[in-house]
Structures
1.
Amino acid sequence: MGRRFEGKVVVVTGGGAGIGRASARGFAGEGARVVVAGPRGESIEETVGIIEGEGGVASAVVADVTRAEDMARLVRTTVERYGALHIAHNNAGIFGKPTPVGDLDPADWQHVLDVNLTGVLLAMREEVGHMRAHGGGVIVNTASNIGYHGRRPGMAAYAASKAAVSALTKVAALDHIGDGIRINAVSPGATDTTMSLRPGESDADRAARLATAVPAGRVASTQEIVNAVLWLASEESSFVVGHDLVVDGGVTA
Ligand code: NAP
């Protein structure tokens, strides 16, 4: 792989695990200086340690995407540390407890919306605020194939939040392409992280379930999702604006 992000400064939210960790490693592996954000110091510091072990440059900022002040501090700290913010991957998300609509606790609904949807808005507000005053930038949001593209029973809060991330991404892209900020989304299908494991399910159980549920016959690797994120963040996609790129092995084809 080349060094598409040499000289770039990148923020990744939800960078302490799964797709976010793989994204942070991917950007750093191609030359970016990466700020890894998440609500717990331990996991994001672990991501930083992995990146440094691979010869990359990264540092951590403890920040919860549901807190506007944390998102402001995340962008401020990034710029203080590295002098810029060029790219953001707004990836933090939670699955919530699968529940039929009739039994959904409004507090659980609100929490999923707060993290998955409002978290993306709060992050983008700060990122756009900096980028439009400093020559532009690129933002990639993580949506899901559950939401705008497809639905599953029991997933009302998650699906509604992710469909809204798709819509928010497109509106934000229209709002800010004139400021030189290119905004897109990636919508993964079931990916090899703890999020895609059902309660009590082993990796082998998941593989057996997805062998028939996914046309491609398997779970996605985090790298397969990150490949799409990096492409949308790179100059190779310079005319792609407001797109929501589904990477789901054909589930919603
Ligand atoms: P994951 O392994 O559970 O990682 C999610 C990350 O988000 C964790 O590092 C978590 O931090 C962080 N996070 C949770 N709440 C946060 C908050 N309030 N503020 C900041 N960070 C927060 O899940 P993943 O599979 O990598 O998912 C990443 C994204 O992909 C999510 O948006 C998810 O909805 C989406 N996605 C995943 C799949 C899949 O099958 N895995 C499919 C479609 C879409 P802690 O660990 O410290 O709590």
Note: The chain has a mean pLDDT of 98.
2.
Amino acid sequence: MNTLVFTVSDPRDPALQTVGEILRRGGLAAIPTETVYGLAANALDDEAVRGIFRAKGRPADNPLIVHISDLSQWAPLVLDIPAQAKQLADAFWPGPLTVILPKSDRVSSVVSGGLSTVAVRMPSHPVARAIIDSAGVPLAAPSANTSGKPSPTTAQHVKDDMDSKIDCIVDAGPCSVGVESTVLSLAGDKPRLLRPGGVTPAMLERVLGEIDIDDAVYHQLAAGKTAASPGMKYKHYAPKAQVTILKGSFAQFCDYVESHKTPDTLALCFDGEEALLSVPAIAFGKESDGKSQAANIFAALRDVDRRGAGQVFARFPKMDGVGLAVFNRLVRAAAFHIVEL
Ligand code: AMP
Ligand code: MG
């Protein structure tokens, strides 16, 4: 399949009508959002949605997030929209928050990965919204990477994984948030954070009061335990190299790297530290700025492979605010391998 690339800066670009048509007739389009690039298909067309799983190599039990551009598209997808869900939509939509509720019959088990719930989000990226409008249907859209690889934050990342597997890629430049949406379940007794993202726990608690944070946000799922979010049980975001996170000061980091380095060692460090290290290094943001780390972490993890690293030592990000999302992705890329210095 020849994958078309549309470069778009204006949400009124006529090319987006073509993208809408591709989606309406069951095609696959990689689309920019404020979080990461998504691989979109008509959420109401099972055959189209199966195409997403095939192109990504995604396990069928890992459900997809349904993207809407207008609040009126939400009610038909769910059994009910409770008061807390409305408050969240008021506060954070459009934006990087996904809300899980019991699903209606209109959402097939292909989208929900066999679960009785559905995850819905209204993105804020003007091009994403224009594409949903133009398709005229809600769009199922996971991250547009090959399953297991770091999520794509540029159209080139998408091309590297999806060229010739999908109908088109819409290139609108790099994603601003850089990590996938916050996933919050309202399907249980108490709101539960399943995946941290651009909307932080503190922001959610300002609207909802206390929320639960699922264990899988911090820790590896214990053997035999069922994942609240099926995506959490799979290997994720991993470069080919073995990644180890080193928890300690920068001086301790430098000492550890110096005494453990091999010819193919690379460091994932904070901005400005590169020149102070004795091995090649890729910076993934400012030390005290979780937002800048979120914007860069996936590109940095992809660069690790491009540079042919075998062993990677990474700095430990602060776990407050958006930093929790950065930690959550990096610790999975490291297969939960952390050394306390
Ligand atoms: P991605 O599509 O790559 O952003 O991943 C979507 C994430 O949301 C995965 O971790 C899924 O397991 C999770 N997810 C989607 N729908 C549901 C649902 N109904 N219940 C729990 N987790 C979900
Ligand atoms: Mg993903």
Note: Residues 62-65, 100, 112, 115, 117-119, 142-143, 180, 183, 194-195, 229-232 surround adenosine monophosphate (ligand 1) (CB under 6 Å).
